[in-house]
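Recall that a protein's primary structure is simply its ordered list of amino acids. Everything else, from secondary elements to tertiary packing, is in principle encoded there. The following example makes that idea concrete.
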Amino acid sequence: MKTVIVAYLAAGLVFLIADAIWLTTMAGTLYRPLLGDKLAPQVHVAPAIAFYLIYSAGIVFFAVLPALAGGGLSKAALNGAVLGLVAYATYDLTNHATLRDWPLAVTLADMVWGMVVTTAGASAGFLAARNIAI
């Protein structure tokens, strides 16, 4: 159980910090110019918290724990990249398919970012669990 908690905290913290940097950096250069009034004027905190808690658990379940069972850091990183691609593609491609004027640039940037940030979270979770908890 200690391994899972350490992995969850490390993956979640790295994911949250990296994503916060990305969102604050890209809000003015990518999201606001392309999405405009589709964006809420302020972040709705409760759903954001729920996302980070649930997604961090997904990183641990789908990337970190399988890597701890065998395959090491490279498996955690690969599984994280695949999870990030699938999760972010689900959101962005659904929006692209169903919402009027959803920009392709947002879809592509988000999918790449999902891979990068989930790989970072999975790698951090794996390293913390391997070096601290085990």
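The first helix runs from residue 2 to 35. The helical segments are 2-35, 45-69, 72-98, 104-133.
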